[in-house]
Amino acid sequence: MRRKARRWLDLAPLLVLIGAAAAGVALTKGPAGRLDPAQAWCAPSLARPLGCGEAGVDLAALLSVAELRAIALAVVVALAGFAVGTPLGAAAAIVRGRFERAVERVCDLVQAFPSFILALAVMSAVRAPSRVALGAVFALTAWAPFARLALAQTRVLRDAAFVEAAVALGRGPLGVLARHVVPNLLGVVAVQLGSTGAAIVISEAALAFVGLGPPGGVSLGGVLDQGVAAMLRAPHVLLVGSAAVFATSAALLVAGRAAEG
Amino acid sequence: MAAAVRVARVLAARAIESLLVVLVLASLVFFALRLLPGDPAALVLGDEASPVELARVRALLHLDEPLATQYARFLRGLVTLDLGDSFRRPGTSAMARVGEAVVPTAVLAAIAVTIGALFGVAGAVAASGPWLPSRARVWVERMFVGVAAVPLVAFAPVATWALAARWRLVPLPGDPEAGAAGLLFASTLLAVPLGAHVGRVARAALAEVARAQFLVTAKAKGMAPLRVWVVHALPAVAGPVVTTVATQLGALLGGAVVLERMFERRGLGTLILEAYATRDLPVLEGAVVAAGLLFALAQAVGSATHAAIDPRARGAGP
Fold first, then answer.
1. What is the pLDDT of residues A179-202, one digit of tens each?
2. Sequence-separated (6 or more) residues with CB below 8 Å from residue A67
3. Chain A residues with at least one Cβ partner in B under 8 Å
4. Which chain A residues are within 8 Å of B258, Cβ to Cβ?
5. Residue B265 in 3-state DSSP?
6. Which residues of A touch B261 (CB under 8 A)?
């Protein structure tokens, strides 16, 4: 019972954030990127709770949409990495030998890979950076931490009595993997979902900040970029953008703990 | 086996892996530019280019050759450090422009690694030794965890606004007159997340080492606490610290790009962005390869440092 309550507590920041963003989207009249040059850089007020940015774009509306999209991207890519990495790492530890060592080294290499430079390079090769392209680039490296964790955990599990029993009863390696090993390491590996999700939100913001974001500028990093440009005139843009990036990544990080079994 | 041979073997294996990273990164850029939808020549010239112009650019960038020939030429260019002329500045080789940009980024990253490692390790020692009350030690640890969770892209703009624009305590690093103080400020920003990661790992490693026999012996011999930690405990945590720095290097390079863009500093990051904006393909390829090389070189230096500091990394072992 207590564990269940803690689980909801861990998920709470993310749910609150999603709720607030959804409410922000629902309350917006017209498209989120609507410009109102008369209101450019205006300070927060009752009508515009977070103030306005460049050319009078309503920051509350813009951030709500950007937030939802960033979370969606993070969740999709992290789940994809989880789905690919976990069986790979588990299989490596079951097969043992060269394959195991190779997977281990490749994971270490990919984890240390300058992934932001990679994303920068690939994004600069596509004509118009889209969210699908962003997701694909992040997925190139997202699987590695999951595989590494699954490998380490399976090393422990493969010597467990129930696994040996399953082998003795004549189950093939695939059956052992699917029925006995993978279900037992899901809890441990799923914890990584949070930190991978947070890293994706941060990378997306950083890419948009340096100008390689999705078209239309609807991104957390786009707001930060506006904020830096108008640092002296309208510091609220910078503070709001920065708080949004931090809150989103922190909420995902904390939500990852809910998976802890 | 002699210790020197062992170290040499480790370093050789590392060097091969590093070169592999550079090769993969370079190949990804090469193929992304050529295989993803969208003609690179059209990317360079824009949509309204005439077919004659497109054909000229294709020939200039060797895009009209078979892919395998292009790849072979590209690999040869990597080895000989000659990727052709910058497309936007004819007469200047792409590698010359990249070489100019590597230095400021390398300096920025090197100072950041130094500051981050020093403060991280110092904090970890402070949190492990007998000097602070136990409550303060817990707070140092919590601070490491908290700071490590704050992304650079979120706090660097705010810190810059507060320190440079609002209170004017430090010069804006983009200011041409900022000089050394500006560089130091930018490096410190970059060092904060690294320092927190290093501190967290070093603290955990020190807690492990604290129970080791050789520390008990050193204390029993009547050594001062600071000497015990610095002379005996620190070399033993060099491994985890170097590994942490190595795993954070990719993020550090990414952070350097963000800071260069924010402060409009010259460097690899701004060169990549400029090459992207002007579609200067040879420069773009060269800059990404250089970033990979910088990363690989730093990792190799890390391994060598580890072997030099920690007796266990070069001495006897299985």
1. 888 888 888 888 889 889 998 999
2. A17, A18, A21, A24, A220, A244, A248
3. 105, 109, 111-118, 120-122, 124-127, 198, 202-203, 205-206, 209-212, 221, 224, 227-228, 231-232, 235, 238-239, 241-243, 245-246, 249-250, 253
4. 206, 209-210
5. coil
6. 209-211
pLDDT at B313: 63
Sign of the Cα torsion B231, B234, B237, B238 reads negative
Q: Please determine, for residue A8, whether its predicted confidence score (pLDDT) is greater than 80.
A: yes
C-alpha distance across the termini of chain A, in Å: 13
Q: Nearest CA of chain A to the CA of B85: how many Å?
A: 19
Cα B283-B286-B289 angle, rounded to 5 deg: 150
Q: What is the ipTM of this complex?
A: 0.82
Measured CA to CA, the distance from residue A13 to residue B119 in angstroms comes to 31
Contact yes or no for B106/B294 (Cβ under 8 A): yes
Distance from CA of A209 to the nearest CA of B (A): 7
Q: Provide the phi-psi class of A170: left if phi over 0, else alpha when psi is between -120 and 50, else beta.
A: left
**Which residues from A are below 8 Å from B269, CB to CB?**
210
d(CA A214, CA A226): 15
Say which DSSP state B62 is in. Answer: T
Lowest-pLDDT range, A55-59, B28-32, B187-191, B270-274? A55-59
- Chain B residues with CB-CB distance to A118 below 8 A: 25, 28
Q: What is the pLDDT of residues B132-173, one digit of tens each?
A: 788 888 888 888 888 888 888 888 888 888 887 778 777 776
* CA neighbours closer than 13 Å in the CB half-sphere of residue B221: 9
Mean pLDDT of B118-123: 90
DSSP label of B151? -
Stated pTM of the model: 0.84
pLDDT higher than threshold 50 for residue B317: no
Model confidence at B175, in pLDDT bands (50, 70, 90)? Answer: low
Query: If you measure CA to CA, which chain B residue comes closest to A207?
Result: B258
